[in-house]
Write a structure and sequence with these properties.
This protein has 337 residues and is an alpha+beta fold. The chain is built from seven helices and 17 strands. Helix 1 runs parallel beside helix 2.
Length: 337
Amino acid sequence: SQLLRDGSSVIACGGAGFYLYDMYGSWYHDEKAEKAIRRLFALNRFATEHAGGYPLPRIGIFADEKARLLRESTYDNVSLIWRTSGVMPALHYLTDIENPKLPDYDLYVVWQPVTISAAQLEAFRRRASRTGKVLAIIGEAGVASLDFEGTADVMKRLGLQVVHHANAPQGDVVVPDSAADSPLLAGVRGVIESGGMYIVNERLLRRGQYGYATVCDPSATVLGRWQENGKPAFASKPLGAGTLVFMARDAGLTPQLLQNLAKAAGVRPYAEVGNVVVVGNGVASVHRLAGEAVVDFGRPVRLVHPETGSRSKPTRFWRPSLNAGKCMAVGYVLENE
């Protein structure tokens, strides 16, 4: 299951490939492992043969590749979040936004852009200011930038009034605003962050961040607040003809919130939140964690056995029979192919 989950997700994401490393020198000779390896290579071959025949992702997640060199408190778990969100993003470095060949996305998620430049911010603003587009800034921004003084300065350029505070309460988190009524909060419960926890002196603490921001814009819609002081930390506001969403908490994103952001941008999810679901480049994979495993392709497809090439009748849904912890992967072709 782990082989299928990891290998198929790389293929579905359009990654550069994968390798299999036998660290113990024996387990690849196991019958179950060999079966999974054959399936992976067949999926890879199938995806290569049908490359370019599938719609591109409509979501782009941009992570600051310089952050780990310039800031100690850096979260690198965004890939864990999207895998169980039911949506399929394209993954980018922050600097990719300057590439003129970058595809057009409906949702731009910018993950802790501590080194963002003025040119990069303008590129995001320009792309996300159009009708139906959504730009989500997650966490501290610009604190290690040559062009900005910090988060407040970055958000000001996007038209959102924010105040930055130098000292943050250790481990404070953001929770939904009890008075907010927004589709962005549909299904969101409890703490809105995925930074993890640790133990100090027998106390369970959430990972902290250096400094924190509060939203002070009277024209913004408050969606969440810092739990300890109750000040606004999560808000949305129009950005031209699009929408701007700001979350002050580093790692302030959950699978449910990511799916809600996608829906706000008009992107239909492939599955409900909970299971690891990847769909793209002719490969669909489900690693069941919770609930029924169901993939909704949104259009008629034919499921393809990657090793035999046999195809199913046209179907919109794939419902693999899986026990918890197990994975299954198939190929698919669009019905009009």
